[in-house]
Each structure stands twice: as C-alpha cells, then as structure tokens.
Predict the structure of Wall-associated receptor kinase.
Amino acid sequence: MRRERALFLLLLLLHLHHHICASKEEQEHGCPPSSCGKITNISYPFRLEGDPEKCGNKRYEVGCENNVTVLYLHSAKYHVQAINYKNYTVRVVDPALQLHNCSSLPLRSLSRSNFSDTYSYYSNGSYQAGLDSGINGESLIFEHIVFLSCNHSVRENGKYVKTEEYVKWDSKGYAYAVVGDLKAEDIEVGCDIKLVAPTSLRSFNNHSYTSMHSSLAYGFQISWLQLACQTHNFCSDGFCYFNFASQKLDCK
Ligand SMILES: *[C@@H]1O[C@H](CO)[C@@H](O)[C@H](O)[C@H]1NC(C)=O
Ligand SMILES: *[C@@H]1O[C@H](CO)[C@@H](O)[C@H](O)[C@H]1NC(C)=O
Ligand SMILES: *[C@@H]1O[C@H](CO)[C@@H](O)[C@H](O)[C@H]1NC(C)=O
Ligand SMILES: *[C@@H]1O[C@H](CO)[C@@H](O)[C@H](O)[C@H]1NC(C)=O
Ligand SMILES: *[C@@H]1O[C@H](CO)[C@@H](O)[C@H](O)[C@H]1NC(C)=O
Ligand SMILES: *[C@@H]1O[C@H](CO)[C@@H](O)[C@H](O)[C@H]1NC(C)=O
Ligand SMILES: *[C@@H]1O[C@H](CO)[C@@H](O)[C@H](O)[C@H]1NC(C)=O
Ligand SMILES: *[C@@H]1O[C@H](CO)[C@@H](O)[C@H](O)[C@H]1NC(C)=O
C-alpha cells in the first residue's frame, strides 16, 4: 500500500514537472513558425499578425502585406529581409528603397539617435542599435550614410561623394553623400543635412554613390538583445551583451 502510494506520488510529481516545463517551453517555442514571403521562420519573440494569442511577444508583431513581412519601428514601416535568431538581429529595409534605382531614397531618416540604447544601458524600446547596449557607442550594428545639400561645390573634402546624377535636393544646389558620422569639421559651411540612412553592409566602395546606394538597399540590422537578456535573466548583476567571438550572450 505504502509503496503504491509512493509510486503514485512519484508519477504525479513527474507529471507536474512535465506540465510546468511544457508551459514554459510553449511560451517560447511551442508555436510552429509562421511564414510570409521569403521569411519562412517567424518564431519567438516574433509573432505574425493573426497568430494565436499565446505565440510570440506582442511588441514584436510583424504583418504580412502582399507577401512581404513588415515590421513597424517608431511607427515607420520596414520590410523584413532576414531574421537571425542566433545573434538576435533582424535585418530590415525602408520600403521606398529600390535595389537598382539609385534615385530612390528612404522615406524617413533613421540613425543611432532614434534608439535609446545609444545613450543608456536601459532602453525602453523593443529594438536596439547595438549588441552591447550602451556600454560604448562603438558597437553599432549599422553605419550611417548622410545626404547633404550644399550651396557650393565641395572639392576639398574627400568624404563628400557627388549624388547629383541621381539625387538632387535643390535645383541650384550641389548634392553629396558621406559615409559614417560627420564630425563638426566635416560639415562644410553652406551645407544642410537632408537625410540620414542606416546600412549594415559595410563592404561598399565609399567613393561611389551607386555602391553606397546598393548597401542602403541591402538594409540594416537592429537587435532584440535586451529582451533576450531579460528573458533568461541572464546577468543578475553586470551588463549583458552579445559576445561575437563565442556567438553567445555573455556578462561583464
Ligand atoms: C510569396 O513569396 C514566396 C517566396 O518569395 C514565393 O515562393 C511565393 O510564390 C509568393 N507567393 C505569392 C502569392 O506571390
Ligand atoms: C527557426 O527558428 C527557430 C527558433 O530560433 C530555430 O530553432 C530553428 O532552427 C529555425 N529553423 C530554420 C529552418 O531556420
Ligand atoms: C547575424 O547573423 C547573420 C547571419 O549569419 C549575419 O549576416 C549578420 O551579419 C550577423 N549580425 C551581426 C551583428 O553580427
Ligand atoms: C526611381 O526612384 C525615383 C524616386 O523615388 C522615382 O521617381 C522613379 O520613378 C523611379 N524609377 C523607376 C524606373 O522606378
Ligand atoms: C528619427 O529621429 C529623427 C530626428 O528626431 C526624426 O526626424 C525621424 O523621423 C526619426 N525616424 C523614425 C523612423 O522615427
Ligand atoms: C521611452 O522613454 C522616453 C522618455 O522617458 C519616451 O519619450 C518614449 O516615448 C519612450 N518610448 C517607448 C517606446 O516607450
Ligand atoms: C574609405 O574606405 C577606406 C577603406 O575601407 C578607408 O580606409 C577610408 O578611410 C574611407 N574613406 C572615407 C572618406 O571614409
Ligand atoms: C552658402 O551659404 C553660406 C551660409 O549660409 C554663406 O555664408 C555663403 O556665402 C554661401 N555661399 C554661396 C556660394 O552662395
């Protein structure tokens, strides 16, 4: 009798254990991946609009429009190009950028200053601009291309690449694009910043606008590092970051 009871208890415990594990698992992995166009693996933390309530995280909901996966970032719409679950990044592109049309430009400016993790470790947004939140601003996972309109021709500064053949802001003016962040001494008198656009394809020719443009059309990565760190309560004290060498989350 006692033995039977003990066995029953054991079975009950095993069952309960299984149940607890299953419900935690379900939250993250229990839903089969959703698919839209070329993005065939939409899973936690992402959810596709219309998925069952329990799937993914509402803050990472993506839509499917004309067979294209769309993501909203600061209420602007972007097309999803790839989701990389191993390094917690999603690559998106502005919907107005057309790959072989060098006159096409993003609809909205976007730069590191639109992401709060650039300034502090604690960001309240869903996405971050780096994989090393705020520890140093050097670990951005995209870089900037800055478009300028000038009232004179700039020949002395090698960073200024002419865009006039494709992009012109003012009929009388001179138009340029510059890779990277502009230091104060780089901003020529009589030039205005018209647009700042991110790209994560760094292997372009920084003296050729067509090359800069195709890197813009490749898109840029943003990360969900903070959610990943919080989900596993990864570092009880210290900073959680993505270690590129080991390709895993780490603490420091
Ligand atoms: C949607 O996109 C996928 C992948 O690019 C393609 O295989 C499929 O034919 C497309 N479906 C429609 C209805 O366009
Ligand atoms: C899809 O993503 C899940 C969750 O990260 C991963 O376990 C799985 O291997 C991925 N499948 C493919 C085909 O990439
Ligand atoms: C994340 O992984 C993807 C796919 O391997 C890669 O293309 C991308 O550059 C990686 N992102 C970072 C920031 O290393
Ligand atoms: C290229 O982009 C420009 C600017 O968006 C647009 O006016 C033009 O119609 C596009 N050209 C083609 C061939 O789609
Ligand atoms: C990023 O910030 C700039 C400057 O505050 C703003 O003009 C732009 O609309 C923002 N971009 C997005 C996508 O919210
Ligand atoms: C983040 O916090 C700032 C300042 O506290 C606020 O202006 C902003 O709207 C918040 N963003 C989100 C996505 O909650
Ligand atoms: C252009 O790229 C080369 C090689 O990557 C680099 O050494 C150089 O400083 C860059 N020039 C400008 C103006 O950014
Ligand atoms: C361009 O604008 C700057 C500042 O507005 C002015 O000082 C300069 O004279 C202008 N240059 C030309 C060539 O119009």
